[in-house]
Design brief:
Blueprint lengths: L1 H16 L4 H11 L1 H8 L6 E6 L2 H17 L4 E6 L2 H7 L7 E4 L5 H11 L1 E7 L5 H9 L3 E7 L13 H8 L3 E4 L2 H9 L5 E3 L4 H7 L8 H7 L4 E7 L1 H12 L5 E6 L4 H9 L5 E3 L13 E3 L6 H4 L5 E4 L12 H5 L4 E3 L7 H8 L3 E3 L3 H13 L1 H16 L4 H10 L6
Parallel strand pairs: 1-2, 1-4, 2-3, 4-5, 5-6, 6-7, 8-9, 8-12, 9-11, 10-11, 12-13, 13-14
Length: 412
Protein backbone atom coordinates (compact mmCIF):
# COMPACT_ATOMS: atom_id res chain seq x y z
CA UNK A 1 0.00 0.00 0.00
CA UNK A 2 2.74 2.46 1.03
CA UNK A 3 4.74 1.68 -2.13
CA UNK A 4 1.75 2.36 -4.40
CA UNK A 5 1.05 5.67 -2.68
CA UNK A 6 4.72 6.57 -3.02
CA UNK A 7 4.68 5.86 -6.78
CA UNK A 8 1.55 8.00 -7.25
CA UNK A 9 3.16 10.81 -5.25
CA UNK A 10 6.36 10.49 -7.29
CA UNK A 11 4.32 10.86 -10.48
CA UNK A 12 2.94 14.21 -9.30
CA UNK A 13 6.39 15.38 -8.18
CA UNK A 14 7.91 14.48 -11.57
CA UNK A 15 5.19 16.43 -13.40
CA UNK A 16 5.91 19.46 -11.23
CA UNK A 17 9.69 19.17 -11.66
CA UNK A 18 9.28 18.77 -15.42
CA UNK A 19 8.29 22.45 -15.53
CA UNK A 20 11.87 23.33 -14.61
CA UNK A 21 14.00 20.40 -15.84
CA UNK A 22 14.28 19.43 -19.52
CA UNK A 23 15.47 15.88 -18.83
CA UNK A 24 12.58 15.16 -16.46
CA UNK A 25 10.17 16.76 -18.94
CA UNK A 26 11.31 14.35 -21.65
CA UNK A 27 10.56 11.42 -19.36
CA UNK A 28 7.13 12.71 -18.34
CA UNK A 29 6.10 13.43 -21.93
CA UNK A 30 7.58 10.17 -23.16
CA UNK A 31 5.69 8.09 -20.59
CA UNK A 32 2.43 9.78 -21.61
CA UNK A 33 2.90 8.38 -25.14
CA UNK A 34 3.94 4.83 -24.24
CA UNK A 35 0.56 3.12 -24.47
CA UNK A 36 -0.16 4.77 -27.83
CA UNK A 37 3.17 3.53 -29.19
CA UNK A 38 2.43 -0.01 -28.06
CA UNK A 39 -1.00 0.06 -29.70
CA UNK A 40 0.52 1.40 -32.93
CA UNK A 41 3.36 -1.11 -33.04
CA UNK A 42 1.84 -4.31 -31.64
CA UNK A 43 -1.14 -6.15 -33.10
CA UNK A 44 -3.44 -8.47 -31.20
CA UNK A 45 -2.03 -11.47 -33.07
CA UNK A 46 1.65 -10.59 -32.43
CA UNK A 47 3.80 -12.71 -30.15
CA UNK A 48 5.99 -10.43 -28.06
CA UNK A 49 9.10 -10.31 -25.91
CA UNK A 50 9.79 -7.42 -23.55
CA UNK A 51 13.25 -6.10 -22.67
CA UNK A 52 13.53 -3.51 -19.90
CA UNK A 53 16.57 -1.40 -18.95
CA UNK A 54 16.92 1.42 -16.46
CA UNK A 55 19.21 3.44 -18.71
CA UNK A 56 21.89 3.29 -21.39
CA UNK A 57 24.39 1.36 -19.27
CA UNK A 58 21.94 -1.47 -18.63
CA UNK A 59 21.02 -1.54 -22.33
CA UNK A 60 24.67 -2.01 -23.29
CA UNK A 61 25.00 -4.63 -20.57
CA UNK A 62 22.00 -6.58 -21.80
CA UNK A 63 22.63 -6.17 -25.52
CA UNK A 64 24.53 -9.45 -26.10
CA UNK A 65 21.58 -11.36 -24.59
CA UNK A 66 19.01 -9.23 -26.42
CA UNK A 67 20.71 -9.98 -29.73
CA UNK A 68 20.86 -13.70 -28.95
CA UNK A 69 17.19 -13.78 -27.87
CA UNK A 70 16.11 -11.93 -31.02
CA UNK A 71 17.97 -14.51 -33.09
CA UNK A 72 16.54 -17.38 -31.02
CA UNK A 73 12.93 -16.15 -31.38
CA UNK A 74 12.75 -14.38 -34.76
CA UNK A 75 8.96 -14.67 -34.98
CA UNK A 76 8.43 -12.47 -31.91
CA UNK A 77 8.14 -8.70 -31.86
CA UNK A 78 10.45 -6.98 -29.40
CA UNK A 79 9.40 -4.12 -27.12
CA UNK A 80 12.26 -2.29 -25.44
CA UNK A 81 11.54 0.01 -22.49
CA UNK A 82 13.70 2.49 -20.60
CA UNK A 83 13.08 4.37 -17.40
CA UNK A 84 15.67 7.10 -17.96
CA UNK A 85 15.76 9.66 -20.79
CA UNK A 86 19.53 9.13 -21.07
CA UNK A 87 18.80 5.59 -22.26
CA UNK A 88 15.71 6.24 -24.34
CA UNK A 89 16.97 9.30 -26.21
CA UNK A 90 20.15 7.57 -27.37
CA UNK A 91 18.60 4.17 -28.21
CA UNK A 92 15.07 5.09 -29.31
CA UNK A 93 15.88 3.81 -32.80
CA UNK A 94 17.60 0.64 -31.63
CA UNK A 95 17.53 -2.08 -34.32
CA UNK A 96 17.07 -4.67 -31.62
CA UNK A 97 13.42 -3.67 -31.06
CA UNK A 98 10.21 -3.15 -32.98
CA UNK A 99 8.90 -0.66 -30.41
CA UNK A 100 10.98 1.49 -28.04
CA UNK A 101 9.21 3.29 -25.19
CA UNK A 102 9.53 4.85 -21.78
CA UNK A 103 8.23 2.53 -19.07
CA UNK A 104 5.06 4.02 -17.55
CA UNK A 105 5.29 4.52 -13.79
CA UNK A 106 4.83 1.36 -11.76
CA UNK A 107 1.24 1.85 -10.62
CA UNK A 108 -1.18 -1.08 -10.41
CA UNK A 109 -3.35 0.44 -13.15
CA UNK A 110 -0.39 1.00 -15.49
CA UNK A 111 1.02 -2.47 -14.94
CA UNK A 112 -2.32 -4.17 -15.68
CA UNK A 113 -2.90 -2.08 -18.81
CA UNK A 114 0.68 -2.52 -20.01
CA UNK A 115 0.75 -6.30 -19.59
CA UNK A 116 -2.73 -6.66 -21.12
CA UNK A 117 -1.61 -4.77 -24.23
CA UNK A 118 1.77 -6.42 -24.53
CA UNK A 119 1.09 -10.03 -23.47
CA UNK A 120 4.86 -10.72 -23.33
CA UNK A 121 5.70 -14.40 -23.51
CA UNK A 122 9.12 -13.51 -22.11
CA UNK A 123 10.39 -10.51 -20.18
CA UNK A 124 14.05 -9.75 -19.48
CA UNK A 125 15.11 -7.17 -16.90
CA UNK A 126 18.74 -6.13 -16.52
CA UNK A 127 20.76 -5.83 -13.31
CA UNK A 128 18.62 -4.03 -10.72
CA UNK A 129 15.70 -2.00 -12.14
CA UNK A 130 12.94 -3.99 -10.44
CA UNK A 131 9.33 -2.78 -10.46
CA UNK A 132 7.00 -4.76 -8.15
CA UNK A 133 3.63 -4.12 -9.81
CA UNK A 134 4.88 -5.04 -13.28
CA UNK A 135 6.64 -8.18 -12.11
CA UNK A 136 3.80 -9.41 -9.92
CA UNK A 137 1.34 -8.80 -12.76
CA UNK A 138 3.55 -10.85 -15.09
CA UNK A 139 3.53 -13.64 -12.54
CA UNK A 140 -0.27 -13.49 -12.15
CA UNK A 141 -0.71 -13.85 -15.92
CA UNK A 142 1.82 -16.68 -15.99
CA UNK A 143 4.20 -14.83 -18.32
CA UNK A 144 7.85 -15.80 -17.93
CA UNK A 145 10.39 -13.27 -16.68
CA UNK A 146 14.12 -13.42 -15.95
CA UNK A 147 16.68 -11.06 -14.51
CA UNK A 148 20.18 -11.05 -15.98
CA UNK A 149 23.49 -9.74 -14.61
CA UNK A 150 21.89 -9.27 -11.18
CA UNK A 151 24.14 -7.70 -8.56
CA UNK A 152 22.78 -7.09 -5.06
CA UNK A 153 24.21 -5.87 -1.77
CA UNK A 154 23.14 -6.88 1.78
CA UNK A 155 21.97 -3.35 2.64
CA UNK A 156 19.37 -3.28 -0.16
CA UNK A 157 15.65 -3.37 0.64
CA UNK A 158 15.15 -6.91 -0.73
CA UNK A 159 17.05 -8.29 2.24
CA UNK A 160 15.44 -6.20 4.98
CA UNK A 161 12.50 -7.24 7.19
CA UNK A 162 10.46 -4.31 5.83
CA UNK A 163 11.13 -5.05 2.15
CA UNK A 164 8.23 -7.46 1.59
CA UNK A 165 6.86 -5.84 -1.57
CA UNK A 166 10.26 -5.76 -3.26
CA UNK A 167 11.12 -9.23 -1.99
CA UNK A 168 7.92 -10.57 -3.60
CA UNK A 169 8.83 -8.82 -6.83
CA UNK A 170 12.25 -10.44 -6.78
CA UNK A 171 10.73 -13.86 -6.18
CA UNK A 172 8.33 -13.41 -9.10
CA UNK A 173 11.19 -13.90 -11.58
CA UNK A 174 11.25 -17.39 -13.09
CA UNK A 175 15.03 -17.27 -12.97
CA UNK A 176 17.76 -14.87 -11.91
CA UNK A 177 21.25 -14.95 -13.41
CA UNK A 178 23.78 -13.34 -11.10
CA UNK A 179 27.01 -11.64 -12.05
CA UNK A 180 28.71 -12.64 -8.79
CA UNK A 181 28.59 -15.38 -6.16
CA UNK A 182 27.72 -12.92 -3.38
CA UNK A 183 24.37 -12.15 -5.04
CA UNK A 184 23.64 -15.86 -5.33
CA UNK A 185 24.26 -16.22 -1.59
CA UNK A 186 21.95 -13.29 -0.74
CA UNK A 187 19.14 -14.78 -2.82
CA UNK A 188 19.47 -18.11 -1.07
CA UNK A 189 19.23 -16.33 2.29
CA UNK A 190 15.70 -15.16 1.38
CA UNK A 191 14.83 -18.65 0.10
CA UNK A 192 14.97 -17.81 -3.59
CA UNK A 193 16.44 -20.88 -5.29
CA UNK A 194 15.72 -20.30 -9.00
CA UNK A 195 19.03 -18.55 -9.47
CA UNK A 196 22.39 -19.39 -10.99
CA UNK A 197 25.74 -17.71 -11.49
CA UNK A 198 26.39 -16.65 -15.07
CA UNK A 199 28.86 -13.81 -14.76
CA UNK A 200 28.41 -10.32 -16.13
CA UNK A 201 27.21 -9.87 -19.73
CA UNK A 202 29.12 -6.58 -19.91
CA UNK A 203 32.30 -8.57 -20.53
CA UNK A 204 30.70 -10.13 -23.61
CA UNK A 205 29.50 -6.72 -24.74
CA UNK A 206 32.94 -5.09 -24.56
CA UNK A 207 34.63 -8.17 -26.06
CA UNK A 208 32.32 -7.87 -29.06
CA UNK A 209 33.78 -4.40 -29.67
CA UNK A 210 37.03 -6.07 -30.73
CA UNK A 211 35.23 -7.68 -33.67
CA UNK A 212 33.97 -4.35 -35.02
CA UNK A 213 35.69 -1.89 -37.31
CA UNK A 214 37.18 0.58 -34.82
CA UNK A 215 39.05 2.66 -37.39
CA UNK A 216 38.89 6.43 -36.92
CA UNK A 217 41.19 8.18 -39.37
CA UNK A 218 41.16 11.49 -37.50
CA UNK A 219 42.43 9.73 -34.35
CA UNK A 220 45.20 8.01 -36.32
CA UNK A 221 46.30 11.36 -37.71
CA UNK A 222 46.02 13.08 -34.33
CA UNK A 223 47.98 10.40 -32.47
CA UNK A 224 50.78 9.92 -34.97
CA UNK A 225 53.74 8.25 -33.25
CA UNK A 226 52.95 9.67 -29.80
CA UNK A 227 51.53 7.98 -26.73
CA UNK A 228 47.81 8.70 -26.36
CA UNK A 229 45.97 9.33 -23.10
CA UNK A 230 42.18 9.06 -23.42
CA UNK A 231 40.10 10.67 -20.68
CA UNK A 232 36.64 9.15 -20.99
CA UNK A 233 33.30 10.28 -19.53
CA UNK A 234 34.86 12.97 -17.36
CA UNK A 235 33.02 15.31 -14.99
CA UNK A 236 34.20 18.64 -13.53
CA UNK A 237 35.33 16.75 -10.41
CA UNK A 238 37.65 14.69 -12.60
CA UNK A 239 39.15 17.85 -14.06
CA UNK A 240 40.61 18.72 -10.64
CA UNK A 241 42.62 15.50 -10.86
CA UNK A 242 43.90 15.55 -14.43
CA UNK A 243 44.16 19.18 -15.59
CA UNK A 244 47.46 20.02 -13.92
CA UNK A 245 49.04 16.84 -15.27
CA UNK A 246 47.96 17.34 -18.88
CA UNK A 247 48.79 21.04 -18.86
CA UNK A 248 52.36 20.03 -18.03
CA UNK A 249 52.59 17.23 -20.60
CA UNK A 250 54.83 17.85 -23.59
CA UNK A 251 55.00 14.81 -25.83
CA UNK A 252 51.74 13.12 -24.82
CA UNK A 253 48.65 13.38 -26.99
CA UNK A 254 45.35 13.65 -25.10
CA UNK A 255 41.73 13.06 -26.06
CA UNK A 256 39.06 14.18 -23.60
CA UNK A 257 35.49 12.88 -23.91
CA UNK A 258 33.43 14.87 -21.36
CA UNK A 259 30.26 13.28 -20.00
CA UNK A 260 28.42 16.56 -20.57
CA UNK A 261 28.93 18.13 -23.98
CA UNK A 262 26.77 21.22 -23.80
CA UNK A 263 28.57 24.25 -25.33
CA UNK A 264 28.76 25.99 -21.95
CA UNK A 265 30.51 22.98 -20.38
CA UNK A 266 32.93 22.63 -23.30
CA UNK A 267 33.78 26.35 -23.18
CA UNK A 268 34.53 26.04 -19.46
CA UNK A 269 36.86 23.09 -20.08
CA UNK A 270 38.65 24.86 -22.93
CA UNK A 271 39.41 27.83 -20.68
CA UNK A 272 41.26 25.54 -18.23
CA UNK A 273 43.60 23.98 -20.82
CA UNK A 274 46.75 25.87 -21.80
CA UNK A 275 47.81 23.54 -24.64
CA UNK A 276 46.83 23.72 -28.32
CA UNK A 277 43.32 22.24 -28.25
CA UNK A 278 40.78 21.31 -30.88
CA UNK A 279 37.14 20.22 -30.93
CA UNK A 280 35.53 17.39 -32.85
CA UNK A 281 32.81 19.80 -33.97
CA UNK A 282 35.53 21.87 -35.63
CA UNK A 283 37.40 18.89 -37.05
CA UNK A 284 37.67 20.08 -40.65
CA UNK A 285 39.52 23.24 -39.59
CA UNK A 286 42.10 21.56 -37.36
CA UNK A 287 45.76 20.83 -37.94
CA UNK A 288 45.58 17.53 -36.04
CA UNK A 289 49.32 16.86 -36.09
CA UNK A 290 50.00 20.13 -34.26
CA UNK A 291 47.04 19.80 -31.88
CA UNK A 292 47.93 18.29 -28.50
CA UNK A 293 44.51 18.05 -26.83
CA UNK A 294 41.42 16.96 -28.71
CA UNK A 295 37.99 17.32 -27.08
CA UNK A 296 35.39 14.84 -28.27
CA UNK A 297 32.31 17.07 -27.99
CA UNK A 298 30.03 14.42 -29.47
CA UNK A 299 28.63 11.04 -28.45
CA UNK A 300 29.01 7.54 -29.83
CA UNK A 301 32.74 7.48 -30.65
CA UNK A 302 34.42 6.85 -27.30
CA UNK A 303 34.44 3.05 -27.54
CA UNK A 304 36.30 3.29 -30.88
CA UNK A 305 38.67 5.97 -29.60
CA UNK A 306 39.78 3.62 -26.81
CA UNK A 307 41.18 1.32 -29.51
CA UNK A 308 43.99 3.88 -30.03
CA UNK A 309 44.71 4.65 -26.37
CA UNK A 310 47.91 3.73 -24.56
CA UNK A 311 46.57 4.91 -21.19
CA UNK A 312 42.99 5.66 -20.11
CA UNK A 313 41.46 7.68 -17.32
CA UNK A 314 37.76 6.93 -16.74
CA UNK A 315 35.64 9.56 -15.02
CA UNK A 316 32.92 9.55 -12.41
CA UNK A 317 34.74 8.25 -9.34
CA UNK A 318 36.42 11.55 -8.49
CA UNK A 319 33.05 12.78 -7.25
CA UNK A 320 29.69 11.12 -6.60
CA UNK A 321 28.50 10.60 -10.17
CA UNK A 322 29.47 6.92 -10.21
CA UNK A 323 32.40 5.37 -12.04
CA UNK A 324 31.78 5.06 -15.76
CA UNK A 325 32.58 2.02 -17.89
CA UNK A 326 36.15 0.87 -17.23
CA UNK A 327 35.60 -2.35 -19.17
CA UNK A 328 35.54 -0.61 -22.56
CA UNK A 329 39.15 0.59 -22.37
CA UNK A 330 40.29 -2.56 -20.56
CA UNK A 331 39.14 -4.78 -23.42
CA UNK A 332 41.68 -3.07 -25.71
CA UNK A 333 44.43 -3.68 -23.14
CA UNK A 334 45.82 -0.58 -21.41
CA UNK A 335 46.45 0.78 -17.92
CA UNK A 336 43.25 2.27 -16.47
CA UNK A 337 43.16 5.19 -14.01
CA UNK A 338 40.12 6.39 -12.03
CA UNK A 339 39.15 8.18 -8.81
CA UNK A 340 38.66 6.74 -5.35
CA UNK A 341 34.85 6.64 -5.14
CA UNK A 342 34.35 3.21 -6.71
CA UNK A 343 33.01 1.14 -3.80
CA UNK A 344 29.86 0.16 -5.70
CA UNK A 345 31.86 -1.04 -8.71
CA UNK A 346 33.50 -4.37 -7.83
CA UNK A 347 35.21 -4.58 -11.21
CA UNK A 348 37.31 -1.55 -10.20
CA UNK A 349 38.64 -3.27 -7.10
CA UNK A 350 39.29 -6.47 -9.07
CA UNK A 351 41.11 -4.62 -11.84
CA UNK A 352 43.33 -2.87 -9.30
CA UNK A 353 44.03 -6.22 -7.59
CA UNK A 354 45.24 -7.81 -10.81
CA UNK A 355 47.44 -4.78 -11.58
CA UNK A 356 45.45 -3.57 -14.56
CA UNK A 357 44.37 -0.30 -12.96
CA UNK A 358 45.45 2.44 -10.54
CA UNK A 359 43.35 4.49 -8.12
CA UNK A 360 43.94 8.26 -8.26
CA UNK A 361 43.46 10.23 -5.04
CA UNK A 362 44.74 13.71 -5.94
CA UNK A 363 46.12 15.94 -8.67
CA UNK A 364 49.66 15.26 -7.50
CA UNK A 365 48.96 11.53 -7.48
CA UNK A 366 47.68 11.76 -11.06
CA UNK A 367 50.90 13.47 -12.19
CA UNK A 368 53.05 10.85 -10.47
CA UNK A 369 51.22 7.83 -11.86
CA UNK A 370 50.90 9.28 -15.35
CA UNK A 371 54.62 10.04 -15.40
CA UNK A 372 55.40 6.45 -14.40
CA UNK A 373 53.23 5.05 -17.16
CA UNK A 374 54.60 7.38 -19.82
CA UNK A 375 58.25 6.75 -18.95
CA UNK A 376 58.17 3.06 -18.00
CA UNK A 377 57.42 1.01 -21.12
CA UNK A 378 57.59 -2.28 -19.23
CA UNK A 379 55.10 -1.17 -16.56
CA UNK A 380 52.74 0.03 -19.27
CA UNK A 381 53.09 -3.25 -21.15
CA UNK A 382 52.44 -5.36 -18.06
CA UNK A 383 49.37 -3.39 -17.03
CA UNK A 384 48.03 -3.49 -20.59
CA UNK A 385 48.35 -7.27 -20.63
CA UNK A 386 46.64 -7.58 -17.25
CA UNK A 387 43.64 -5.41 -18.18
CA UNK A 388 43.05 -7.31 -21.44
CA UNK A 389 43.40 -10.64 -19.63
CA UNK A 390 40.95 -9.44 -16.97
CA UNK A 391 38.26 -9.07 -19.65
CA UNK A 392 39.09 -12.29 -21.46
CA UNK A 393 38.90 -14.36 -18.27
CA UNK A 394 35.36 -13.14 -17.52
CA UNK A 395 33.52 -13.42 -20.82
CA UNK A 396 30.92 -16.12 -21.46
CA UNK A 397 27.85 -15.02 -19.47
CA UNK A 398 25.70 -14.77 -22.61
CA UNK A 399 26.44 -18.36 -23.55
CA UNK A 400 25.50 -19.54 -20.06
CA UNK A 401 22.17 -17.70 -20.27
CA UNK A 402 21.40 -18.93 -23.77
CA UNK A 403 22.24 -22.52 -22.81
CA UNK A 404 19.43 -22.16 -20.28
CA UNK A 405 17.01 -21.06 -23.02
CA UNK A 406 18.13 -23.80 -25.36
CA UNK A 407 17.65 -26.51 -22.74
CA UNK A 408 14.40 -28.17 -21.78
CA UNK A 409 14.40 -26.15 -18.57
CA UNK A 410 12.93 -23.07 -20.20
CA UNK A 411 10.77 -22.60 -23.27
CA UNK A 412 9.25 -19.40 -24.58
Amino acid sequence: MFYNLLVLFAGHILKFLSLFNKKIKKGVLGRSESFLKIKAGINESDRTIWFHCASLGEYEQGLPVFEAIKKRYPEHKIVLSFFSPSGYEIRKHSPIADVVIYLPLDTKANSKKFIALLKPELTIFVKYDIWPNYLIELQKKDYKSILISAAFRPEQIYFKWYGGNFKNALKSFNHIFTQNKETLYLLKKINYTQASFSGDTRYDRVTNQLQLNNTLEFVETFKGDCLLLVIGSSWPEDETLYLDAINNSKDLKIIIAPHEIQPKKIKSLLEKINLKTGLYTNLENLDLKRTQVFILDTIGLLSKVYAYADIAYVGGAAGHSGLHNILEPATFGMPILFGTNHKKFPEAKELISCNGAMEIASSENFKTQLSKLVNDDELRRQMSHQSAQFISDRKGATKTIMDFFNSNAFKC
